[in-house]
UniProtKB/TrEMBL annotation:
One Pfam family cited in the UniProt record for this chain: SelP_N
One GO location term (cellular component): extracellular region
Any one GO molecular-function label of the UniProt entry: selenium binding
Residue spans of biased composition, Basic residues class: 143-156
Span of domain Selenoprotein P N-terminal: 2-156
Sequence segments annotated as region (Disordered): 136-156
Alphabetically ordered keywords of this record: Glycoprotein, Secreted, Selenocysteine, Signal
Localization annotation: Secreted
Coiled-coil stretches: none
Protein's name in the database: SEPP1 protein
UniProt cross-references to InterPro entries, sorted A to Z: Selenoprotein-P_N, SeP
Source domain of life: Eukaryota
Length: 156
């Protein structure tokens, strides 16, 4: 989670502002006891959300696992769902996915676009796009307009 803070600062320095970061803590008792440690390890700019044991697990609802990164665009549309190993912050995938979601209208136009984004995004997406292309499955038609790098494990 300190790496997430580093990434947040790096992107902000590159001009990518107003990104919301949310860490979802696991609902288990063990994780709940560790909650304050998690909270202390990130800055106030990163929200740490504690799930209630009584509610439906967020990760089940989102069809993911606790180490996944889900990256949404300004209109709240899911642009990338990164599972392991792509979600390790020591790799570039998360950073590049955020940059693409920030700069490109992957899911169509969004009314919340920043007006002065072009200058920031000029060089960013070219490099990020090339790196992501290595792992991004080619869309097989209209239904896959959100690029899901996640191989869904079906729970029986």
């Amino acid at each position: 989670s300190t790496r997430l803070e580093d990434l947040r600062v790096k992107l902000e320095n590159e001009g990518l502002v107003n990104i919301s970061y949310v860490v979802v803590n696991h609902q288990g008792t063990y994780s709940q006891r560790k909650f304050h440690l998690l909270k202390e390890s990130v800055s106030d700019y990163i929200t740490v959300y504690q799930q209630d044991e009584q509610q439906a697990d967020v990760w089940t609802t989102l069809n993911g696992n606790k180490d996944d990164f889900l990256i949404y665009d300004r209109c709240g549309r899911l642009v990338y769902h990164l599972g392991l190993p792509y979600s390790f912050l020591s790799f570039q995938y998360v950073e590049d996915s955020i940059k693409i979601a920030y700069c490109e209208n992957k899911c169509g136009n969004c009314s919340y676009m920043e007006p002065d984004i072009d200058g920031i995004c000029e060089n960013i997406t070219k490099n990020a796009g090339e790196k992501l292309a290595e792992i991004e499955p080619k869309p097989t038609g209209q239904h896959s307009h959100h690029h899901n790098l996640h191989r869904h494990r079906h729970h029986h």
